[in-house]
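note to self: dont lose this again. the chain is below, predicted strucutre after it. 454 aa total, dont forget to put it in the shared folder this time
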Amino acid sequence: MPSYTTVSLHDDHSRLPQDFIARMQEDLGEEAGAFLESLKEEAVTSLRVNPLKVSGEEDAVEHFRKVAPFSTLEPVSWEKNGFYYKEPDQPGKHPMHEAGVYYIQEASAMLPVTLLAPAPGERILDLCAAPGGKTTQIAAAMEDQGLLVTNEVNGERARILAENVERMGIGNALVLNESVQHLSAAFPSCFDRILVDAPCSGEGMFRKNALACDEWSLAATAECALRQREILDHASVMLRPGGRLVYSTCTFAKAEDEECMDRFLDEHPEFTLVSRHRIWPHKERGEGHFAAVLVKSGDAQPAPFRKDKLTSVTDKKLESFREFWEGNVRLPMPEQVLLFGDQVYRTPAEMPSLHGLKVLRGGLHLGTLKKNRFEPSHALGLYLKPEDAVHVADLTDRENELTAYLNGMTLNLEGDKGWYLVVCNGYSFGWGKLAGSVLKNHYPIGLRKYWMAD
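---
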């Protein structure tokens, strides 16, 4: 076990391991003092605007500035949709967070996806993806075009990942709960770009998370380095020749960063290092982060996927789905869907076989087939923009009613009976079903909170 020395950080509870201090003093020399002093400062807080949620042609950031309730928003230099905010603003407690208008994410954690440079129409793998910050950032850049496979080996964390994919209105992602060994066997040379945000010792989170401090040890750092080596080996199999791989961690340990990269390059001569990047808290406005950009030699299209047979929407058992879509959604109906029992999914345009894989989401969850009816999913409600729905319950400038909706209350509304997309300030929040003059609430019970209007 490491010895500890007490350091007066901003919360008066964090402790820095003595072994960590000694290593950083050796690594940084004269800079160590400034570095250790920076860990006494408050952690930086930031968020990233979600351009998938903006209707029409308006710039996502400009639109966000119009409706954001926050007192201070300053841009993050390496991410065009990133902003610093002040902690008293508490964006996680605002209804726009529930609508997926933004994602609360460390500014430093936004850098790896910027370096990955995802583009619409590509096949991209986020290999160690929970809780979903980098996945949702990749999806925004892909503009709902191409295939995003996002994976997390831990089952509980994979469920959180799936929830964030849903909240941010992502339609082209598959969410898997798989080992890297199983994935590399299923997807050899299949991806244009791969992000490996590897599990690490978490040293970059020390001033934000006292628990990360207490759980740190030199032995744990060595164990992380071994695990990262294995993950990278399997990731290399899944990248096509000419593809781009970004490796990132939130640690300062050279064993997990520079040395891990050097070892990988020695063992994989088909890869070339393009660049390495570090964010130091005493130099940049962010927590600690490391990223390296690699490219694989050659130039080849991704290998073809194994395919599963999808179900045509003309199938008789999908009659209630067709009726719902034709009466409530203005977007073109998908020609084929993926059925998991009674659950209906719209798959990405290029869809691999999911046979033998642990799948949490097989694309955009459209809803559930029930006896003689179809019930739309919350995921579909968050994916659709107001102009995509036939019936809209617009609660803009009706804050009390939005609060009531998020709390699970029914609303009074005049109009034709049927499904209504509940929206506010141009953002969708979910479904309601109108009968008479009462809009029955279909906001998921598990998401309801005791919201208070300002």
